[in-house]
Amino acid sequence: MPSILRSLVVLAALALAAAPAPARAQAPPAAPDTGLTVTLLTIGQGDMVWEKFGHNALWIHDPAAGTDRVYNYGMFDFNSPGYWSRFIKGDWLYELGVHDIQQTIYAYQHYNRAVWAQQLNLTPAQKRELQAFLETNALPANREYLYDYYRDNCSTRIRDALDRVIGGRLLAATADSLTGTSYRWHSERLIADDAASYVGLAGGLGPAADRQITAWEEMFLPFKVQEQVRAIRVPDASGALVPLVAREWTILSAEGRDGPLREPPPATQFFIVAGVLIACLLLATAMVAHRSAAARLAYAAVSALWLLFAGTAGVLLVGLWAFTNHEIAYRNENLLQLSPLALPLVVLVPCVAYGARWAARPAWILSAAVAALSLLGLVMQVLPGLDQRNAHIIGVALPVNLALAWTVRRLAGRTRTEPPAAAATPRTREKAAA
């Protein structure tokens, strides 16, 4: 029996040894490195107003396919059907364009715009994922998107694409970090050398532009994406944390460009000086308008130009709020300074200056209302929750609106007390009889 038992044990052992080993879960093989590289391109300011904010794009070098493609979310065409109507309504479309790196460099060299490159430290799998994502976005059915100045532009699209492949690390690092800046703050410093656009932004941006933004939101600017990717660390293929930027260099330098201002210019005093000068001109010419044809003409011309500007601006602000999707212009307190009520005064005030009695009362009522609204806008600045940064517009509009109300009152009073132009004095009648 013992020998039989030993034989059975040996046979069992041999059977177990011959049996196949149970299957074990194995990690998927690492993605092969095919030499694919991803480079963030940051482009400096240009001459056109929409180029003042800079630009960015992603360059993917694929040696296996023999391609060097630049993915650019900032493409638009003024001549596309319906472009201007969509622009006015705030529903205009941008699209993702794909170009060769040499074409891209040549174009920015032609327009004298600087180009900086940051090669990104992504894993092979992340590079392929990003490439596939961009290629899918570039398909005709996908390439268009609804553009927003600050929340969905060329730079935020690049930010979001990068954050997608690094597992949300960019968002996690910046979403709760307040910057002490706002959309208006950045817009004013970047557009400062374009006076007309600067005034337009000062008047057109509503209180939404003054909210303090996070570092994540601040990446509506390409230069801020450049800064944030430089600062962040991500895990490599082995799990070790490494800088997201592997290396960076300058591709093109711009000749004769100083770069954007570091902060907005102190422009409020210039707006105040302009407002006071216009107000003084109105006061001075109104004081002698009854005895000087030149002063009367100057008063009528200056008042009409200001009222045309203020009234037209007010109508535009109402239109932006009521009839478009330009949310950044909603609830604009500048409506109290640039009132649509000024438009009828374009006709009424010069008529009062030239002695039209019928215009005196409506001109005084409307000009007083415009001045009262302007004063209300100043008083509202101390109320909680009404913190729109519109000192520029108050500074220029309030002195002029107050001066207009005072001078219209003075001229209207003189018009009511003076005899009608057709009434002849005794001396005039004597000359006529002679």
Which structural category fits the helices and strands? Answer: alpha+beta
The tally of beta strands, per DSSP, is: 9
Low-confidence stretches: 1-29, 420-426
- CATH fold field value of the largest domain: endopeptidase fold (from Nostoc punctiforme)
Question: SSE layout and pairings?
Answer:
Blueprint: H1 2-18, E1 37-43, E2 55-62, E3 67-75, H2 83-89, E4 93-100, H3 101-110, E5 115-120, H4 124-137, E6 144-146, H5 154-165, H6 169-174, H7 183-190, H8 195-204, H9 222-231, E7 233-235, E8 241-243, E9 245-252, H10 268-287, H11 293-323, H12 342-353, H13 357-379, H14 391-417, H15 426-433
Antiparallel strand pairs: 1-2, 1-5, 2-3, 3-4, 4-6, 5-9, 7-8
Helix pairs in contact: 4-5, 10-11, 10-14, 11-12, 12-13, 13-14
Please outline what is shown here:
This protein is of the alpha+beta class and 434 residues long.
